[in-house]
Task: structure prediction
Amino acid sequence: MAACATTYFEAGLGWAARVQAHNAELMAQQAQRRRHARTPEIYFAKHFDNTRLVKAADPALVREMRVFSAAVAVLFSLIMVYGLQHFNAIESSYRVESEKQTVKQLREQNRQLRLSEAELTRPGRIDQEARQLGLAAPQPDQVVYPNSRPESSAPVLAQTVSPSPTAH
Result:
């Protein structure tokens, strides 16, 4: 309808001329729009029947794949053996360090025990502890020396019998 409306400038043209000019203008715009627009593409699915096809055996390819598989298996085995040896070596070094620490602690404990033993067996300390407990020095007849022969009239608590040399 807007194309048919008469304006001040178009007053001299007839109705048919104005419609024809308007249609020409619209056709030019439509052609201009088509140049920049893409044509839609349509894809059709194609179904192929490959059930009758049979794969031909290739002995060279089979041999090549077997050699490749064997090479990969050997390489994997070597890597795994190396890895296991490496981790065992690391674990052993940790174990050795742990044992070294244990030996160091035991040596220190042994040194402490020897110092403690030396302190406890000191004769002056033993005499002092004995006096605190109320013990007195032994009388001369109370002392028995092991390398002397006992008197025959004295009571015997225990006697050792040595085997005779002819009793074989």
